[in-house]
UniProtKB/TrEMBL annotation:
<dbReference type="GO" id="GO:0009414">
    <property type="term" value="P:response to water deprivation"/>
</dbReference>
<protein>
    <submittedName>
        <fullName>Aquaporin PIP-type pTOM75</fullName>
    </submittedName>
</protein>
<comment type="similarity">
    <text>Belongs to the MIP/aquaporin (TC 1.A.8) family. PIP (TC 1.A.8.11) subfamily.</text>
</comment>
<feature type="transmembrane region" description="Helical">
    <location>
        <begin position="52"/>
        <end position="77"/>
    </location>
</feature>
<dbReference type="InterPro" id="IPR034294">
    <property type="entry name" value="Aquaporin_transptr"/>
</dbReference>
<dbReference type="GO" id="GO:0015250">
    <property type="term" value="F:water channel activity"/>
</dbReference>
<feature type="transmembrane region" description="Helical">
    <location>
        <begin position="134"/>
        <end position="152"/>
    </location>
</feature>
<keyword id="KW-1133">Transmembrane helix</keyword>
<keyword id="KW-0813">Transport</keyword>
<feature type="transmembrane region" description="Helical">
    <location>
        <begin position="211"/>
        <end position="231"/>
    </location>
</feature>
<keyword id="KW-0472">Membrane</keyword>
<keyword id="KW-0812">Transmembrane</keyword>
<dbReference type="InterPro" id="IPR022357">
    <property type="entry name" value="MIP_CS"/>
</dbReference>
<dbReference type="GO" id="GO:0005886">
    <property type="term" value="C:plasma membrane"/>
</dbReference>
<dbReference type="InterPro" id="IPR023271">
    <property type="entry name" value="Aquaporin-like"/>
</dbReference>
<feature type="transmembrane region" description="Helical">
    <location>
        <begin position="258"/>
        <end position="279"/>
    </location>
</feature>
<dbReference type="InterPro" id="IPR000425">
    <property type="entry name" value="MIP"/>
</dbReference>
């Protein structure tokens, strides 16, 4: 019992290094920066650690709450007679960005506060976490999203199906290529912001600039939603798109669904490559 308690306290119950938890790893007392070693592809010890499963549960709950609040906001907008009598598109964007800010703040020390398979994928490509943890996070995020959308449908049985269920689709007037491009660029903005906001080197180099990681990440989500809600309803999060599509479960949601996986994963990969090679120049540093 004593050992379990000690493990539970260490770094938000993260006995096994999973990389830089959002908003925590960048805030170090030591200003002399040392590049952390890449995470192993597979870390068997994680599977026997309570901290590993605790992190997955945190990702599940965060994604559940994210879908619950955001889809309810979308449904409230669509039920209104006009945008002026509801929160409007800006309000929907604030709901998504604000929830990401709050949830990353709450879960950063436990799981890293990913709440998005695209973010997890980008961090995995940068060797910030193991494949084991990345796959586990993605599964828990998707399950949380499905449950969150399901609760919303339980509250609004009739209107939910009639109003689209918050599912992402390419809107009329735009092509599938437009939708794919919007998802790629939007996710690039998000994941690039995640890398920059959680970069431990920034604290060592720019210690005079205070960084609260959840704030720029939430603000990036807000801005991307403002730009792309008219195009795709804004996915940039495969779990969010999957949860809404499964619960809504109509043809129009599934016709375009591939866009909301392919686009975010491409965007996340590009952001990881750009940050690691261009911004950090890690592959080109001398070993001396």
């Amino acid at each position: 019992m004593a050992e379990n308690k000690e493990e539970d306290v260490n770094l938000g119950a993260n006995k096994y290094r999973e990389t830089q938890p959002l908003g925590t790893a960048a805030q170090t007392e030591n200003k002399d920066y040392i590049e952390p070693p890449p995470a192993p592809l597979f870390e068997p010890g994680e599977l026997s650690s309570w901290s590993f499963y605790r992190a997955g549960i945190a990702e599940f709950m965060a994604t559940f709450l994210f879908l619950y609040i955001t889809i309810l906001t979308v449904m409230g907008l669509k039920r209104s007679d006009s945008l002026c009598s509801s929160v409007g598109i800006q309000g929907v964007a604030w709901a998504f960005g604000g929830m990401i800010f709050a949830l990353v703040y709450c879960t950063a020390g436990i799981s890293g506060g990913h709440i998005n398979p695209a973010v997890t994928f980008g961090l995995f490509l940068a060797r910030k976490l193991s494949l084991t943890r990345a796959v586990f996070y993605m599964v828990m995020q998707c399950l949380g999203a499905i449950c969150g959308a399901g609760v919303v449908k339980g509250f609004m049985k009739g209107p939910y199906q009639r109003l689209g269920g918050g599912a992402n689709v390419v809107n009329p007037g735009y092509t599938k290529g437009d939708g794919l491009g919007a998802e790629i660029i939007g996710t690039f903005v998000l994941v690039y912001t995640v890398f920059s906001a959680t970069d431990a080197k920034r604290n060592a180099r720019d210690s005079h600039v205070p960084i609260l990681a959840p704030l720029p990440i939430g603000f990036a989500v807000f801005l991307v939603h403002l730009a792309t809600i008219p195009i795709t309803g804004t996915g940039i999060n495969p779990a969010r798109s999957l949860g809404a599509a499964i619960i809504f479960n109509k043809k129009q949601a599934w016709d375009d669904h591939w866009i909301f996986w392919v686009g975010p994963f491409i965007g996340a990969a590009l952001a990881a490559v750009y940050h690691q090679i261009i911004i950090r120049a890690i592959p080109f540093k001398s070993k001396a």
